[in-house]
Amino acid sequence: MKKEKTYLLTYYLKNTDERIKAVFENIPYKTKEISLSEERLINLIEAELKKYPYIRCCSVMSKEWFGQVDWALKFTVSNPFFLEEPIPHEIKPKDAEHIVINDSMNQVYMTKYESSHEGFEVNLESEQKVIRLGSFFYDLKGVLICEATDEDRKKYYCDKFITFPIVDDDWRVFDGKEISDGIERLIVGKKGDTIPLAALRDAADYNAREHDCEYEMQLQDLERHGITVSNRKSRDSAEELPDNIVIGIDKLGEKRFRMDADWGSYYIPRRFFFVGEDDELYESDGDDGKPSAFNQKLLTRIVDDVWGLSWFFNKPNLRVLVTAVTDNGFGFQRSQLGPIPKDWFYTVQTLEGEINRKLDEMHQQYPDNYNRAKRPDIVEEKK
Predict the structure, then answer these.
(1) What b/e string do you get for 55-86 counting C-beta neighbours within 10 Å, with b at 16 or more?
(2) Distance CA 28, CA 61 (A)
(3) Fewer CB within 10 A of the end CB, N or C, for the chain?
């Protein structure tokens, strides 16, 4: 692993105050302290600038030697994606029609096909299927089938031929790593379908790892493509999922944990987390107990997920029940859930209360905000 350093990042906005903008062209917007390698630092800054085009630039400060008291300016990054847009006063909640999905990371893999293969053919799609690529959803217009090159066989799991999806009205060809195991498993459904929330667990887990967007934005994105997301227990049942989201926590090591939503609950993505030096819980990218590139607290991530589901389905009473996963008899039966042990860290023991307290505060602040563009969820008749 490349050597990590601690950096102080400050993001700046364009100053629009007529009285002082001639003196201060930019004003500080937000600051964060983060520890990671320089390579990951650059990737993080690029992702942030793409995601928030109203940011003008970012300054990077560091301490060059051990024991240095003051931060020293290392470099400044101007935002190449800057747009003259007003910064939103409230990130949440927003009506679905006002949200624009930022899939700029996917655009790297959206190409206009150039003939570099021995042969190819295009098959058009007539069933109005919707496909997931990364964290986002697209109309599948057809597929491009090519004779696989040696380079294709290294990059994808394929034999003689390789299939690329063609998506959306501009007929873009996608050749990113997400299709390495084929595209069939990425087909979400057809326009007009209704699917349960749990069917989107792969998409939700991918987004949680990659930090592409907020959870509810994924659900809105899919519904804009004509597929209804249901919070019912099954397609032919009118009974909805219970308001308590059960979270099971596995202890993986002295300070390492994993959380999963229990089957039968509203699904929130799997996450790994660890206890930091300040005894707070932080998200990690895997089960190694290392901080994620975004260095976010687990509390914030879970609250965001539950708030998003609450807003999307208009369920203001959604709360969490945090439990511990116990041994399951060497894998021969389902894991059991029980109370958080008293010898676990205090911040794990109090996680449930902290999440629900924060949700209560948010619902008091926004008492009548919900997704008014939600597609109607019609119960299917049993066949």
Answers:
(1) bbbbbbbbbeeeeeeebeebeebebeeeeeee
(2) 14
(3) C
Residue-wise pLDDT tens digits, 294-315: 678 999 999 999 999 999 999 9
pTM of the model: 0.70
Pairing mode, strands 281-284 and 26-36: unpaired
Largest CA distance in the chain: 71
Distances (CA, A) of 98 to 13, 19, 88, 372: 22, 31, 11, 12
Taking Cα atoms as reference points, which of 110, 105, 206, 116 lies closest to residue 165?
Answer: 110
pLDDT in tens, 4-57: 788 889 888 887 766 656 656 788 888 888 888 877 888 888 888 888 888 888
User: Which secondary-structure segment (H or E) carries 101?
Assistant: none
Report DSSP state, residue 97. G
What's the distance, CA 123 to chain centroid? 32
Place of tokens 């032919």: 236
Distance of alpha carbon 142 from alpha carbon 167, whole angstroms: 7
Strands 194-196 vs 228-230: parallel, antiparallel or unpaired: parallel
For residues 247 and 325, the answer to whether their CB atoms sit within 8 Å is no
Contact 204, 287 (CB under 8 A): no
Residue type, 219: L
Judge whether 241 and 233 are in contact, CB under 8 Å.
yes
Residues 6+ apart with CB under 8 A from 173: 110, 111, 112, 113, 144, 164, 165, 166
* Three-class HEC string of 186-205: HEEEECCCEEEHHHHHHHHH
How many whole angstroms separate alpha carbon 230 and alpha carbon 219? 10
Signed CA dihedral, 209, 212, 213, 215: sign only:
negative
Q: Which residue, 195, 194, 196, 214, is CA-closest to 204? A: 214
H helical segments located in 187-252: 201-210, 215-224
